[in-house]
Amino acid sequence: MDKFFLVSLLGLLIAAHGVTGTLTCDNIAMLDELTNMDTEENEIELSDIPSWTSERGGKVLVNVDSFGAAGDGESDDTESFRKAWNVSCSTPNSVFLVPQGRRYLVNATKFAGPCKGTLIIQIDGTIIAPDEPKNWDSKLARVWLDFSKLEKAVFQGAGVIDGSGKKWWDASCKKNKSNPCKGAPTALTIDSSSGIKVKGLTIQHSQQIHFTISRCNSVRIYGVKVSSPDDSPNTDGIHISESTNVIIQDSKIGAGDDCISIVNASSNIKMKRLFCGPGHGISIGSLGKDNSTGIVTKVILDTAVLKDTTNGVRIKTWQGGSGYVRGVRFQNVKMENVSNPIIIDQFYCDSPTACQNQTSAVEIREIMYQNISGTTRSAKAIQFSCSDTVPCSSLVLSNVDLEKQDGTVETYCHSAQGFGYGVVHPSADCLNSSDKTLEDIAESIAVEVEEDTRHTEL
Ligand SMILES: *[C@@H]1O[C@H](CO)[C@@H](O)[C@H](O)[C@H]1NC(C)=O
Ligand SMILES: *[C@@H]1O[C@H](CO)[C@@H](O)[C@H](O)[C@H]1NC(C)=O
Ligand SMILES: *[C@@H]1O[C@H](CO)[C@@H](O)[C@H](O)[C@H]1NC(C)=O
Ligand SMILES: *[C@@H]1O[C@H](CO)[C@@H](O)[C@H](O)[C@H]1NC(C)=O
Ligand SMILES: *[C@@H]1O[C@H](CO)[C@@H](O)[C@H](O)[C@H]1NC(C)=O
Ligand SMILES: *[C@@H]1O[C@H](CO)[C@@H](O)[C@H](O)[C@H]1NC(C)=O
Ligand SMILES: *[C@@H]1O[C@H](CO)[C@@H](O)[C@H](O)[C@H]1NC(C)=O
Ligand SMILES: *[C@@H]1O[C@H](CO)[C@@H](O)[C@H](O)[C@H]1NC(C)=O
Ligand SMILES: *[C@@H]1O[C@H](CO)[C@@H](O)[C@H](O)[C@H]1NC(C)=O
């Protein structure tokens, strides 16, 4: 019905407005594209065994316990995990098993492929990291459990991956300015892989980012839980970098930084039915740091609740970058007590020293916000802070309704072009519309069509 509504709207728009004004045509084409944009949802063909215990048929079980793992939470089980991995990876149709009810202490480790056939990594127990940053292997400074070069693999189970991050957080310069600013490990990394499913795991108390997907194609994540306190520094939930065709769904993320962050060279990213909070929201970026190029295209967030977060849906870029963010749709989002529900920040500066404004910037265009409602903690419920030299363009808002518990709300625009139709509260009038009339017509027609639809339903 939504699609029907928009198609009718576009038809009426063309009929009422003609096809002469080039800007109007562009806007209609862009709207059409954004409305019909869909990311690929090709089901990854993997045998979906619910658990290794039921119908194990043909699977070879490689249990870390058989390689001497103690699972007492204190003995160093790293070597057992490495040995079990080697066997599992070189055995077709094997299940790398971390059994339930036990705690395995494991150091930073690279679990590298390619492996033989489809591999199942069944985590039912708890894997914990050693908690002392001083003893961390300096050659693996940024990773803890690092999986790479896998082709068709399933990570699943009711288990927990626990980064024991407390001492890392205390050592962060974000917590104490006299600490040096250096990166900490990511708890779970899946790198340079394809055909990956991740299902049901809990990742918590990570040293820094909880779960990174880098240089991957075709990844589906569902029923995952991420959990860390809201004051744990830089503990992003799920971080996507240089990856394509990624779906994250039915997951609950609470952390000290972005629930999800999508950075450079990523496209076709779909997120649906998510809960985010606490945290910094769902972000594209940051992009363009140190004059780098950042490109992110085709991102859809559909159906999410963000609660007690500092941002809602955010795009953040540094001054001096290049590249672009293009083709993004945020829809059906409920905000509860969110500081900046809708925000584009092209002056992002997450650095101990102040950032200078520059002429170059990552270009932001064709961003749609549809059916976003709820409560904001700050008055600036909608904020578009775009680059002076590279303005944001084709920002579209429709059916946005944000309220502040006590007080009025407003939209802030700086160098931002676009338009709103349907209900948009606070109003999007500050957007530098390329065609004011289009906006007016869109609004009147939106009402008409809505009434029409109600008629036919009666
Ligand atoms: C695992 O295999 C790699 C590559 O064949 C080898 O270098 C390494 O020593 C093996 N590790 C263990 C613990 O067997
Ligand atoms: C794990 O890390 C500890 C602390 O750095 C170290 O003593 C131990 O040898 C490591 N274990 C393995 C198997 O590398
Ligand atoms: C910050 O770190 C310094 C140096 O490590 C330490 O002396 C100080 O007590 C720390 N401050 C807080 C508030 O933890
Ligand atoms: C962005 O991604 C491209 C393509 O993968 C890569 O070559 C480039 O190094 C990346 N840039 C940054 C800043 O990471
Ligand atoms: C980025 O480019 C600007 C302008 O050319 C230059 O002043 C600045 O030093 C560059 N920054 C970095 C980190 O390379
Ligand atoms: C709103 O969020 C803030 C920050 O997380 C929290 O301190 C406050 O209690 C929340 N307010 C309500 C009404 O839930
Ligand atoms: C708008 O979004 C809310 C929150 O996700 C959802 O419950 C509702 O069904 C959506 N409305 C429409 C018309 O899709
Ligand atoms: C950068 O530009 C923005 C927008 O024009 C302005 O508000 C801000 O003060 C500038 N920052 C610096 C450091 O010049
Ligand atoms: C806004 O639109 C007006 C009229 O088209 C134009 O003169 C002005 O430069 C635009 N401002 C920005 C910041 O894009």
UniProtKB/TrEMBL annotation:
The active site is at H280. It is found in: Secreted, Cell wall. PROSITE patterns: POLYGALACTURONASE (PS00502). Its main location: secreted. Pfam families: Glyco_hydro_28 (PF00295). InterPro entries: Glyco_hydro_28, Pectin_lyas_fold, Pectin_lyase_fold/virulence. Keywords: Cell wall, Cell wall biogenesis/degradation, Glycosidase, Hydrolase, Secreted, Signal. This is Polygalacturonase At1g80170.
